[in-house]
């Protein structure tokens, strides 16, 4: 750099400005001393955070423990040949999915879950109980149903969940 400085006549402040802009620390140069060489040491990065702090942070962000059992309600839209489909169900699988999506849209726009159960559910047994399936453990239901139900927060309604029984909307109540 001294050759560049000498040949261009750049003032010393421009060298310091270039170092600051590039993110390097300005070298300590005594007045009248030759400028630092191009092979000056590169500043070392700060030490990595202590690994002892990492577990504490991970513990603080851990999700709450999964309960052994929850209580939920569901709305079931069955289709022809679905497992345990009530007699008289003639809709296709695609029609059943569309009906479940319609029920979800109604709930999203303000209809109560219980009202949607009365209007859309094909599960006569739970419809009498406003969709309640009671308290159940994770392994007591179809895996898709349980995974969706246990992933919900209390009061939250799932999206459309497909099981061999048809298409469900699930609301976790406890």
What are the defining features of this structure?
7 helices, 174 residues, alpha+beta, Chitinase A, domain 3, disordered N terminus
The overall strand count is 4
- The end-to-end span amounts to 72 Å
> Uncertain spans, ≥5 residues at pLDDT below 50?
1-8, 13-22, 37-41
The average pLDDT is 78
CA radius of gyration is: 33 Å
Strand order of the largest sheet: 2-1-4-3
CATH topology heading of the largest domain: Chitinase A, domain 3
Report the structural category: alpha+beta
Proportion in β-strands: 5-15%
CATH class of the largest domain: Alpha Beta
Q: Can you name the CATH architecture of the largest domain?
A: Roll
**Integer tally of domains:** 2
Helix proportion range: 25-40%
Global geometry:
globular
Number of helices: 7
Largest sheet: 4 strands, antiparallel
SSE string, helix = H, strand = E?
HHHEHHHEHEE
Architecture overview:
- The chain is α+β, with helices and mostly antiparallel strands.
- It has two domains: 1-42, no CATH class; 69-172, Chitinase A, domain 3, CATH 3.10.50.40.
- Helices cover 37% and strands 14% of the residues.
- The protein has seven helices and four strands.
- It has helices spanning 2-8, 12-21, 53-61, 93-108, 113-120, 124-128, 143-151; strands at 69-77, 132-137, 161-163, 166-172.
- Strands 2-1-4-3 form a four-stranded antiparallel beta sheet, with helices on both faces.
- A hairpin with a 2-residue loop joins strand 3 (161-163) and strand 4.
- Helix 4 (93-108) packs antiparallel against helix 5.
- The protein starts with a helix and ends with a strand.
- Mean pLDDT is 78; it is low at 1-8, 13-22 and 37-41.
